Amino acid sequence: VCLVGIGGLGCPVAQYLAAAGVGTLGIVDFDVVDTSNLQRQILYGGADVGRPKVEVARERIAALNPDVRVELHACRLDSGNALEILGAYDVVVDGTDNFPTRYLSNDACVLLGKPNVHGSIFRFDGQASVFDARKGPCYRCLYPEPPPPGAVPSCAEGGVLGILPGLVGLVQATETVKLLTGIGEPLIGRLLQVDALRMEFREFRLRKDPACPACGAEPTIRELADYEGFCGVTAPERSIPEIQAAALKAALDSGEELLLLDVRQPEEFSKARIDGAVLIPLGELQARLGELDRWRERRVVVTCHHGMRSQSGAEFLRQSGFTRIESLAGGIEAWSLTVDASVPRY
User: Fold this and answer.
1) Do 35 and 137 fall into the same domain?
2) Which residues of 57-90 are buried (b: 16+ CB within 10 A; e: fewer)?
């Protein structure tokens, strides 16, 4: 299961899925804990302020159920990494509070053929559904276009009853377990709305839109695009610099001291590797951070398959105090294509 966002909704979902024994939890979040989060994001405490949310979440989940494998993606989900990150999981849980990521998650799930467990909250109201384009409507069938920029404030801007994310998050966790186990009737084609002030639950039937650009009869969305532009907001800049494969080769050939850190899985590493690379899978990076202490002020180049997981790993290292971090653009695939054809492609 991949949790997109580990905030108000993601926190209770993560706890209950871990307690239920879900084997692997991926967590996508680039943010750090802020004091304003504490009234609704129940994985965190005052001592965690300033720490990466994914790091704290992993510690809490490990304490609850050490058998759960937690994979950290300390990055912002975007059109460049969404398919690679989400494609590795069976179910996606959308706990975001912004429209660009919400539309991005939806479109990626449609293209990948994955169910998207949706939840959203605002002040005293919440809603949840399961969007699975193979069996019913997607998010775009319900909301073809985003609202004008600024028309709907985020939870941080507009406020939310701190207990409400727990209520909606429990619905999302329940739907996720039902999808994984194949029991019950998921909220596919149904939207559950919650009015906390009246403690009233209402259900609305949803129909697939034949003209939907993502999942309709003749879809026009065949790849991920500029979702910030689509939603009328400014795209964030990537904070991790990238190095091209040719430049990395030149640095290695010159004898420059650097750490080439590979964050793929061991089975991938056994298929293809760059000579001299050190393997620490992304999901183990936080637990094995001490192995890299001597590189905190030295040059570190992080690599993976296509350059997506390396951005996650590099961002995590940057947040952990490493000062000279780069990501190999295009990953080992680019290395095979442009530098060393003897390295197998897969």
Assistant:
1) yes
2) bbbbbbeebeebebbbbbbbbbbebbbbbbeebe
